[in-house]
């Protein structure tokens, strides 16, 4: 049994996909010049939870004691490194840098000292 789809619904879906792909491609084209960092206005508790979750699925050794990005030893700095690594590993799609408002995109390279952000 075929389920008919209205023309309006089809056009809405097509428009939504077009916008999503356009926004994603803008970020992907400029991936070398954008970074995903912790939002300073967000809750540190929420950002710590994000770090805990992400470090279960990615390498977080640079933010561990002795790692290149351990200092400064703050949730904000560690979250920035983890958020950016996740973001860059996923082609810089804007939707990959949000984490419920805990992160934001910047054009300022957050690398410092021996801690290099991708």
What's the layout of helices and strands?
Blueprint: H1 7-29, E1 35-38, H2 44-54, H3 75-89, E2 103-106
Antiparallel strand pairs: 1-2
Helix pairs in contact: 2-3
Shape: globular
Distance between the termini: 50 Å
Reading the helices and strands in chain order gives: HEHHE
* Poorly predicted residue ranges: 9-27
Report mean pLDDT, rounded to a whole number: 84
Tell me the number of helical segments per DSSP (H or I, 4 or more residues long). Answer: 3
How many domain regions? 1
Q: How much of the residues is beta strand, in percent?
A: 5-15%
Q: Specify the structural class.
A: mainly alpha
Radius of gyration from the CA trace? 18 Å
How helix-rich are the residues, as a percent range?
40-55%
Largest sheet: 2 strands, antiparallel
Number of strands: 2
Across the major sheet, the strand order is: 1-2
What does this entry look like structurally?
This protein is mainly alpha-helical and 118 residues long. The protein has one domain (8-106). 42% of the residues lie in helices and 7% in strands. It is built from three helices and two strands; from the N terminus they run αβααβ. The protein has helices at residues 7-29, 44-54, 75-89, and strands at residues 35-38, 103-106. The protein has a two-stranded antiparallel ribbon. Helix 2 crosses helix 3 (75-89). The longest helix has 23 residues, at 7-29. It starts with 6 loop residues before the first helix and ends in a 12-residue tail after the last strand. The relative contact order is 0.20. Residues 9-27 have low confidence and may be disordered. Keywords: Signal. Residues 1-28 form the signal peptide. One of its GO terms (cellular component) is plasmodesma.
């Amino acid at each position: 049994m075929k389920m008919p789809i209205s023309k309006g619904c089809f056009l809405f879906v097509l428009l939504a996909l077009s916008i999503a792909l356009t926004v994603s491609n803008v970020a992907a084209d400029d991936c070398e010049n954008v970074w995903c960092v912790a939002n300073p206005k967000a809750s540190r508790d929420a950002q710590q939870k994000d770090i805990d979750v992400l470090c279960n699925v990615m390498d977080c050794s640079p933010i561990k004691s002795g790692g290149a990005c351990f200092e400064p030893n703050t949730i904000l700095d560690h979250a920035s490194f983890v958020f950016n690594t996740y973001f860059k590993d996923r082609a810089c799609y804007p939707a990959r840098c949000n984490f419920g408002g805990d992160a934001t995109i910047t054009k300022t390279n957050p690398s410092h000292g021996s801690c290099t952000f991708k």
